[in-house]
């Protein structure tokens, strides 16, 4: 897929503006001129500047009659497009199921499904999904201290 830089710039500006708007909900620190919203606002302002530069560059480089968005050839292949849509569905599935099932079970199911769709050898699908889920859980849960949902594991253990 090839998108004109102006489209990317407009998207970046929109995301940065939403981020800056969200910082209005951050609490202020009493007695200080700045609080937790300062860094996200500075970052948002920088992203808006970068987005504006992309818009200018994209508009200057665009030839008359040229498409704003050109899809890659793989998007016309039903199998590959199906896998792409499956990845998006798995992301939504993770958001909806991980709180109930927990990270390890949800990630294992999602990885097994994606490995199967990507034609990994059938005997390797489940072992790879389990090992990858456990390694990812160890890395993020233990090393990075990200609180991953435990779900059903709380009831079992």
Give a short summary of the structure.
This protein is mostly helical and about 160 residues long. It contains six helices and two strands.
The number of strands is 2
Q: State the end-to-end CA separation.
A: 46 Å
From the alpha carbons, calculate the radius of gyration and give it in angstroms: 22 Å
Shape: flat
Mean pLDDT: 91
Secondary-structure element string: EHHEHHHH
Structural class: mainly alpha
State the strand order across the main sheet.
1-2
Please tally the helical runs, counting DSSP H or I stretches of 4 or more residues: 6
Poorly predicted segments: none
Characteristics:
flat, single chain, 157 residues, mainly alpha, two-stranded antiparallel sheet
How does this structure look, described?
This protein is mainly alpha-helical and 157 residues long. Helices cover 69% and strands 3% of the residues. The chain has 6 helices and 2 strands. The chain has helices at 5-22, 38-61, 78-101, 103-117, 122-143, 152-156, and strands at 2-3, 69-70. It has a two-stranded antiparallel ribbon. The longest helix is centred in the N-terminal third of the chain and has 24 residues, at 38-61. The radius of gyration is 22 Å and the shape is flat. The N and C termini lie far apart (46 Å).
């Amino acid at each position: 897929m090839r998108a004109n830089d102006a489209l990317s710039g407009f998207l970046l500006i929109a995301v940065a503006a939403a981020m800056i708007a969200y910082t209005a909900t951050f609490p202020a620190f009493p007695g200080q001129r700045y609080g937790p919203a300062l860094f996200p606002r500075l970052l948002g302002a920088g992203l808006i500047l970068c987005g504006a530069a992309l818009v200018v560059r994209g508009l200057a480089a665009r030839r008359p009659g040229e498409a704003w968005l050109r899809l890659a050839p793989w998007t016309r292949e039903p199998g590959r497009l199906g896998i792409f849509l499956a990845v998006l569905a798995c992301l939504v599935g993770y958001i909806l199921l991980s709180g109930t099932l927990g990270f390890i079970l949800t990630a294992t199911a999602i990885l097994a499904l994606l490995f199967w769709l990507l034609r990994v050898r059938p005997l390797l699908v489940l072992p790879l999904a389990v090992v990858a889920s456990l390694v990812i859980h160890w890395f993020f849960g233990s090393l990075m201290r990200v609180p991953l949902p435990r779900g059903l594991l709380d009831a079992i253990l």
